[in-house]
Amino acid sequence: MSELASNSKPKRPEFRNINAITDLTTYRLPVAGIVSILHRISGALMFLLMPFIIWMFDTSVTSEFSYARFKAVFNVGAGFVPGWFFKLVALALIWAYLHHFIAGLRHLWMDLSHDAVSKEFGKTSAIATLAVSVFLTLVLAAKLFGLY
Questions:
Q1: 3-class secondary structure per residue, 92-134
Q2: In whole angstroms, what separates CA 56 from the centre of its chain?
Q3: Which residues have a Cβ under 8 Å from the Cβ of 83 and sit 6 or more positions away?
Q4: Distance between CA atoms of 40 and 62, rounded to whole angstroms?
Q5: C-alpha closest to that of 146 among 85, 58, 68, 84
Q6: Contact, 107 vs 97, CB < 8 A?
Q7: pLDDT per residue of the chain (148 residues) written in tens, 0 to 9
Q8: The dihedral of CA 40, 33, 103, 117: what is its sign?
Q9: pTM
């Protein structure tokens, strides 16, 4: 009887490493994994664009003349770079900050209440993180591009 019981056990799933060249296009990453990767990307983006952030802050607060020049860069452009490109870079920074902040709050919540963390909570909190960060980015994009 024990031999029959051992044969009726379901086969355990087999885990293997994925090949980045052949398997990456068909691999289904969970939403929590996507949010985790975007959290890293947003942090790297903010770090790499730190000189642009410092330039924006410096020219916006130095004097009235530098503030007028700052506004002109976003409206008209600078050199061969059009103003809409600077707005897109600023929008990327806005998204990076919002996503990084909201995903960071999500991680803090999971660290503080690790008893309540489950697979379902990970999925719903990841979807909420994506939805809130994209919604707030769209609201601020509308303001940045002068829709209101």
A1: HHHHHHHHHHHHHHHHHHHHHCCCCCCHHHHHHHHHHHHHHHH
A2: 21
A3: 73, 74, 75, 76, 77
A4: 32
A5: 84
A6: no
A7: 555 555 677 877 776 777 777 777 777 889 999 999 999 999 999 999 999 999 889 989 999 999 998 899 999 988 899 999 999 999 999 999 999 999 999 999 988 887 768 889 999 999 999 999 999 999 999 999 988 8
A8: negative
A9: 0.79
Q: Where are the beta strands (DSSP E) in 2-50?
A: none
State both tokens at 90.
């600023």
* The two structure tokens encoding residue 141: 């994009």
Kindly state the tokens that stand for 25. Answer: 């296009």
Say which residues have a Cβ less than 8 Å from residue 114's Cβ, sequence separation at least 6.
Answer: none
Task: Report the half-sphere exposure of 52 (CA within 13 A, side-chain side).
Answer: 17
